[in-house]
Amino acid sequence: MKQILLTLLLFIATSAYADDYKILYISTETIEIGGRKLRKGDTFNDKATIKWTLASQSMRIKRIKGNGVKIKVVTKELMKGLKNQTIAELEQQKSSANGYASQNIKKNHTSTRQAINY
């Protein structure tokens, strides 16, 4: 019982922390994230709001604090339709889409490609 409680507490504590990302590349000189003008090499929290200035603006980011090392390219187009314009929200949307795809594969016996391209 103590182990279950301790594991649950540990899970809650680690999930409450946000991931930090470092900007590896940016298509413009600066980008506003969390109310600050950031440049290549700067870091930000995944819950900070990104303000895109150009439709073609993009950046390559690397997770430096959080679960696993992950490098990704983020664009204004990719985040289109997200309410808060945060990396955390993008990750949550991606998880939901993958969950839907997994359920669709199991339920309808479709391929991964068919489920993801719904």
Question: Can you walk through the features of this model?
Answer:
There is one protein chain. This protein has 118 residues and is an alpha+beta fold. Helix content is 36%, strand content 26%. It has 3 helices and 7 strands. The protein has helices spanning 2-16, 87-108, 112-116, and strands spanning 20-26, 31-33, 36-38, 43-45, 50-51, 58-65, 71-75. It has a 4-stranded antiparallel sheet, with no helix packed on it. A hairpin with a 2-residue loop joins β2 and β3. The longest helix has 22 residues, at 87-108. The protein is globular and about 55 Å long. Mean pLDDT is 76; it is low at 99-118.
Order of helices and strands: HEEEEEEEHH
Structural class: alpha+beta
**Helix content percent band:** 25-40%
Radius of gyration: 17 Å
Shape: globular
Please count the beta strands (DSSP E, at least 2 residues each): 7
How is the largest sheet built, in terms of strand order?
Answer: 4-1-6-7
Arithmetic mean pLDDT: 76
Distance between the termini: 43 Å
For the biggest sheet, the summary is:
4 strands, antiparallel
Helical element count?
3
Given as residue ranges, the uncertain stretches (5+ residues, pLDDT < 50) are 99-118
**Which range does the strand content fall in?**
25-35%
